[in-house]
Here is the input.
Amino acid sequence: MTSAVLVPHSQPSPDEPRVISAPATPGDRIFRGLLRAAGLSVFVIMGLIALFLLLRGSDALRATGWSFFTEQRWRTETHQFGIAAVLPDGLLIAVIALLVSVPVSLTAAVFVSEYAPVRLRGALVSLVDLMAAIPSIVYGLWGFYFLQPRIVGVIRWMALHLGGFLPFLKVRTGDIGTSYTSSTFIAGVIVSLMIIPIVTSLSREVFSQAPQGEREGAYALGSTRWGMVRTVVLPFGRGGMIGAVMLGFGRAMGETIAVALVISPAFKVTGHVLENGANSISALIALRFSESDGLSLSALMAAGLVLFTLTLLVNVLAGLVISRSRSGANTAD
Amino acid sequence: MTTTVPYQPAAAEPELLSGLETRGVSAWFGAHKVLERVSLTMAAGEVTALIGPSGCGKSTYLRILNRMHEMVRGAALAGEVLLDGADVYEAGRRPAEVRRRIGMVFQRPNPFPAMSIADNVASGLKLAGIKTSRDEREYLVETSLRRAGLWNEVSGRLHTPGGALSGGQQQRLCIARSLAVSPDILLMDEPCSALDPTSTRRVEETIAELRGRLTVVIVTHNMQQAQRVSQSCAFFLATHDTPGRIVEAGPTAQLFTDPADPRTADYVNGRFG
Here is the structure.
């Protein structure tokens, strides 16, 4: 009971930050170690893949030098090969896939999260997720045997009526049935089916997180539902939407089997998307892998390295966009 | 730009004020009844305070007034809400139109965080589909912010995000946003419960200035606040097996100094709740 008054420090403690120790229990330490190992293994695996591709592809890269990035042809026997055709063509497939899927996905996401009757919502959400789980070979088969014969008519119409003033829609190989099949466009449409569920699912998730308070604020001002969606839900979900689209783009670029099934490989960038003949790096690898060895295998590895780097970049960028947005920031930490 | 004359309102608008009245309003969430036959008249141009302990249904009642109640899943109601004598739940009447005339300020400030302060104030116009010229809009933004007592603090940074303001400022921004669509009624659901005392005082000053310009209905837990800002007062009470109902309603001064019901006396004197 002597401490009722301010006691002068008998030993003035130094006025500087103390070293604070918080020793962890053994259990904590073990658990942390396990988690750290699991987390690091992701980086290790990524690093090993990159290293493997680099080593196996180095022969091809040495053989061609920088022309690997400028050569359109793929003739490994004569050392004339490069990704200047397959890379842009693959990007074109991905862009077409996005053009088709993004409007569909975003409107579907808005519908499921904002308009669908509550009873239907759960069913729709699981249906979309189920759609994402369908193996891509199934999409490929369906696209090739079912979709292609049925949309050739549309493509022919586009080529004949729009090709006149939109040169990239022109088909120069004459007006016969096979001119319109196995094109960049059809490959893009089929790939779009595969990325619709991803983009829909991710953006729906973000939309549904739009704060209730802001939603009610909009309604209380006399807003219609669409007005509320426009002022609250879409701005809130913008970052998530962009991220979802970029993830979809990454997936579209890497999509292999469906593209390989549908296209008839061409090694020339034409820009005429409706014309027979298309390609992508992943389809090239899938189609050529079994018949390759030595330098031609190394060439495929080098092409794979380019695709790996590009998809990695797109995905990292998508992750950055998502985590820096308001909607993503809530989920990131 | 040099020839523009500052926008002037058409006239000093001595418009008729609208009152609000409910008749036999009951409410349910699923099978659970939360309000029983609440009839109350909220006089035009006055501030009516709804008081009562937590869970007595006063917030639900407030949300019934501007048709926010029906947005909750499983919510149901009975009775009538009369705005200028017409039932707001009349078949064929759009909720959006009702909500534009009966504005609402929420417990937690909810400005649109990414929008600028000016855009926040004007957002209701856009949402309600009210067309305005640029000058009209600027005039409305300024007068609304002035009426909400926020103008002096933000006039220099109207184009910075509304989400960057302090909690009290955000709440006054929300009041300005509600006033910009010139509602007849303003509902306030515990508008100060998330604010510090200084901001609370500012909001109360704002409410005092609104008196006579429009009809205010405020839910509050704060007895002193009810006494300071309101002219009429209604005391809600629910017990664990009966839904909320009005125990007593009348002029605020009478309710606090000479209540008719002993339960009101107990509550306003802080003996329970």
Observations:
- The beta strands of chain A are 74-75, 80-81.
